[in-house]
């Protein structure tokens, strides 16, 4: 009898507590994991925004994890997908767009889902306005493929030039050079200074600047409309434009104007050469359009201007760099909507403007740019406006190529050989082109349908 009473009490207790437990379970926020390729102050900024979002929308808990590189974030995502536990959002760079589109889950489904497909015709996600239509055209055009907005652009940049205004004034250079010929003339004047810098100009030996130059020249880097009309099956590292660029670059070095640090993809070394006044010009990423002028302010004023172009070719515009946020495929509906809500809130006018001011990456939405302009930001910080203005000169998009990172490395190695060892430039580029096309062919054998 005593056991029967205890059983009745237990049943009543469970009946009393179960609804409360269910309510508590329903009140648990939906976890939205975001993996980004930053571990510095940009990760801190992102986590601060996530905390703000979580406070505004307590039904979600956005958790941001940082990785040392884009490839690390991507590889971790692939592994997590194999284990059935992928994040909701993954940060990946623009040159890997084709690889992101080709990536699949263990079931053979696409690893990522286009944000426009996920959003559909909705104008808001759980009260958060959709901002895709507000994204600046340079980024929107790059990431819109087959009529779909593949991912949410985030840290977006272009290539620009930094000039030491004090050296230019001493050399009697009144206008910032904008063409290759004007660069050569300016370097000649700077070299004539009694107390001028040892060299005139530098930039990292990184394929991105080659890609920028091919875009400026209107030269395709790959067939099939740069891989946008159909999958790229051939690359052109040996094109007329490529030969002209490599020749000009080598000639600058031979004249004693360009200095190579001797390290491939040496962002830090080339930046240091400019900031320590070893050179007067630095071609670099616009993501540092506020950082570098701040670093040099005590010693000399820095002016940011558009990337110089070859006057032998009609100017066809510059392309973007940076990275984008991909929505992982196969999420449950509640988690997917949480990820979409965060992506759109994260890129709203206020956040896009603040991100630009904090980092130097371009304001990713038109309303953010307009708001900053109307508020006087660009009048006070003219260097910060250059990248947007340059991208708007002539709209163009970059190439989509499988195994792009490895192909970039082939070009970078070829340029290092040209700079350090000399030799026949056309032959070196021809050999690099053959190697690059082998890499592309091998990639397409794995992924092309």
Molecular structure report:
The chain is built from 20 helices and 14 strands. Mean pLDDT is 94; it is low at 7-15 and 17-25. The chain is globular, with a radius of gyration of 26 Å. Helix content is 50%, strand content 14%. The chain has 2 domains: 30-156 and 322-393, 3-Layer(aba) Sandwich (D-Maltodextrin-Binding Protein, domain 2); 159-318 and 402-447, D-Maltodextrin-Binding Protein, domain 2. The longest helix is centred in the N-terminal third of the chain and has 26 residues, at 2-27. With 449 residues, the protein is of the alpha+beta class. Helix 15 packs across helix 16 and helix 19 (404-421) runs antiparallel to helix 20 (425-447). A hairpin with a 2-residue loop joins strand 7 (144-145) and strand 8. Strands 1, 2, 3, 4, 9 and 14 form a 6-stranded mixed sheet that branches. Strands 11-12-10-13 form a 4-stranded mixed sheet.
Question: Radius of gyration, Cα only, in angstroms?
Answer: 26 Å
Structural class from helices and strands? alpha+beta
Q: Please name the fourth-level CATH homologous superfamily of the largest domain.
A: Periplasmic binding protein-like II
Look at the structure and give the mean pLDDT. Answer: 94
Which regions are unreliable across 5 or more consecutive residues at pLDDT < 50? Answer: 7-15, 17-25
Our count of domains comes out at: 2
Q: Class of the largest domain in CATH?
A: Alpha Beta
The end-to-end span amounts to 73 Å
Shape: globular
Largest sheet: 6 strands, mixed
**In what range is the share of β-strand residues?**
5-15%
Q: What is the fold named in CATH at topology level of the largest domain? A: D-Maltodextrin-Binding Protein, domain 2
Enumerate how many helices there are, as a single number: 20
């Amino acid at each position: 009898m005593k056991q029967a009473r205890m059983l009745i009490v237990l049943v009543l207790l469970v009946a009393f507590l179960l609804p409360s437990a269910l309510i508590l379970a329903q009140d648990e926020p939906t976890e939205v994991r975001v993996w980004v390729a930053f571990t510095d102050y940009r990760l801190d900024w992102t986590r601060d925004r996530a905390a703000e979002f979580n406070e505004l929308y307590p039904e979600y808990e956005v958790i941001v994890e940082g990785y040392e590189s884009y490839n690390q974030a991507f590889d971790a995502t692939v592994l997590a997908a194999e284990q059935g536990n992928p994040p909701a959002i993954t940060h990946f760079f623009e040159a890997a767009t084709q690889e992101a589109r080709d990536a699949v889950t263990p079931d053979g489904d696409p690893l990522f889902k286009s944000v426009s497909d996920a959003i559909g015709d909705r104008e808001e996600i759980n009260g958060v306005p959709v901002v895709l239509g507000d994204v600046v055209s340079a980024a929107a055009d790059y990431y819109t493929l087959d009529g779909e907005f593949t991912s949410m652009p985030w840290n977006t940049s272009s290539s620009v030039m930094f000039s030491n205004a004090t050296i230019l004034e001493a050399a009697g250079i009144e206008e910032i050079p904008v063409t290759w010929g004007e660069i050569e003339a300016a370097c000649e004047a700077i070299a004539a200074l009694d107390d001028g810098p040892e060299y005139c100009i530098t930039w990292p030996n990184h394929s991105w600047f080659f890609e920028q130059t091919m875009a400026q020249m209107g030269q395709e880097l790959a067939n099939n409309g740069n891989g946008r009309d159909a999958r790229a099956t051939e690359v052109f590292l040996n094109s007329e434009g490529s030969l002209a660029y490599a020749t000009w670059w080598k000639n600058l070095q031979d004249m004693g104007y360009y200095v190579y640090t001797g390290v491939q993809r040496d962002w830090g070394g080339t930046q240091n050469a400019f900031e320590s006044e070893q050179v007067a010009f630095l071609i670099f990423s616009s993501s540092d359009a506020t950082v570098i002028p701040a670093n040099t302010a005590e010693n000399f004023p820095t002016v940011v201007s558009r990337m110089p172009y070859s006057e032998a070719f009609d100017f066809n515009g510059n392309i973007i760099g940076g990275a984008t946020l991909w929505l992982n495929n196969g999420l449950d509906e509640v988690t997917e909507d949480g990820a979409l809500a965060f992506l759109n809130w994260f890129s709203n006018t206020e956040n896009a403007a603040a991100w630009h001011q904090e980092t130097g990456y371009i304001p990713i939405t038109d309303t953010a740019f307009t708001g900053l302009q109307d508020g006087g930001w660009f009048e006070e910080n003219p260097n910060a406006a250059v990248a947007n203005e340059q991208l708007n000169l002539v709209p163009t998009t970059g190439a989509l190529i499988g195994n792009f990172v490895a192909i970039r490395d082939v070009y970078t190695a070829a340029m290092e050989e040209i700079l350090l060892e000399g030799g026949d430039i056309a032959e070196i580029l021809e050999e690099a082109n053959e190697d690059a096309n082998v890499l592309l062919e091998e990639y397409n054998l794995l992924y092309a349908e």
